[in-house]
Amino acid sequence: MLCETAVWPAGRLPVLAAELERAGLGADVATLLWEMACLPPEPLAAAAEALIAAGRESDGERLLRQSVARPVAEVAQTALALLESAAHPEVALLLTAFIRARTPAEVAEAAAEDPGALVPPLLDAASAVSPGSQHDLAHALRVAGIHGAT
């Protein structure tokens, strides 16, 4: 049933999570988040935004962190969906988790999906992780021939 509810409209998901907790089924919220992390990029981004907007920041952050295990192109598409809706804090959360979890070459591969949109926030996220991460990512972007690497 949680698998089916993960595809509900994003605005309903925070309410469902709260109701699960009220019913003593808080552990099922983690399962729901895991199922939502498997959604296509646009609904995944909408779900994270809805959770955070409803005051469930930790759930939204957990969802974004879990989603970085997805294929690189899908993580990039999720970031682009968040950027399109001007969800900049969520983009930063997603990309910081992505940089921590993946190699610089994989992050550069994601940037190739839309360098103009993704390189600046990726470099910002790498800088937030560490100066070494930013340097490694900039190098990987240059090696991949992606413009915007400093």
Give a count of the beta strands, DSSP E runs of length 2 or more. Answer: 0
* pLDDT < 50 runs, ≥5 residues: none
Secondary-structure-derived class: mainly alpha
Helices and strands, in order, run as HHHHHHHHHH
The total domain count is 1
Strand residue content: under 5%
Gyration radius from CA atoms, angstroms: 16 Å
Work out the helix count: 10
Shape from CA axes? elongated
Please provide a written account of the structure.
This protein is mainly α and 150 residues long. The chain has one domain (11-144). The chain has 10 helices and no strands. The longest helix is centred in the last third of the chain and has 15 residues, at 115-129. The termini are far apart. The model has no long low-confidence stretch (mean pLDDT 92).
Keywords:
single chain; 150 residues; mainly alpha; 0% strand
Give the SSE layout.
Blueprint: H1 2-5, H2 13-22, H3 26-36, H4 41-53, H5 57-67, H6 72-84, H7 88-101, H8 104-111, H9 115-129, H10 131-143
Structure, briefly:
With 150 residues, this protein is an all-alpha fold. It has ten helices and no strands. It is elongated, with a radius of gyration of 16 Å.
